[in-house]
Specification:
The protein has 197 residues and is an alpha/beta fold. It has nine helices and four strands; from the N terminus they run βαβαβαβαααααα.
Length: 197
């Protein structure tokens, strides 16, 4: 469906970094082999994502699928729009928007990365120190700062230590769908896109 678009949080204010963000998510989602085409647009910060989503949602034609993919920032215990209302009070849900237009990475992109130990080992090789990494069990319930800090500690001896830049999106594109499918946020994203595309 030509009208399908997902606005993605990530990439900051740099056009080059937003392109790297889009490419990383494109590589990852391409592995899912969705039945339809989808455009991905990295918008940088959360508010820019929501603004782009609202504009596209208001202008969409019947049959179009418009969504946003954002970090949940905190464990998700409510419906997507309720979570956003509590987390981002200035975000007003469009009257006809549905929960399947909100796609979460719970709690942050690093959660998906830390959960895929085989890919981390392959990417970082012998310099990876897995001791600081949290257990993958219920990892979506862990605070995002804890997950992000653990990944920085685990790779600090590597010449390509983890940073939220082009490197982070390169790793994202390498992640294994079989591992990610065990994460509720990714399984939900995949199910929704299979249904909507």
């Amino acid at each position: 469906m030509s009208g399908s678009v997902i606005f993605i949080e990530g990439g900051g204010k740099s056009l080059a970094l937003r392109n790297s963000c889009r490419e990383g998510f494109h590589k990852l989602l391409k592995k899912c082999e969705f039945p339809g085409d989808i455009r991905l647009k990295a918008r940088g910060g959360r508010d820019a994502v929501f603004d782009s989503f609202k504009t596209a949602h208001d202008a969409k034609a019947p049959g179009d699928y418009v969504a946003m993919l954002v970090d949940s920032e905190e464990p998700v215990t409510q419906t997507p729009w309720e979570h956003l209302r509590r987390r981002d009070p200035s975000w007003t849900k469009p009257p006809d928007a549905t929960d399947d237009q909100v796609l979460f990475i719970t709690t942050c992109m690093e959660t998906w990365i830390v959960s895929d130990r085989p890919t981390l080992r392959s990417h970082y090789r012998n310099c990876l120190n897995e001791n600081p990494l949290p257990s993958a069990v219920n990892i979506e319930q862990r605070p995002r700062d804890q997950v992000q800090d653990s990944l920085a500690l685990a790779t600090r001896s590597c010449s390509n230590a983890y940073r939220k830049d082009k490197r982070s999106f390169e790793i994202l594109g390498e992640l294994n769908l079989v591992v990610l499918q065990g994460l509720p946020s990714f399984a939900r994203l995949r199910r929704i896109l299979q249904e909507r595309l």
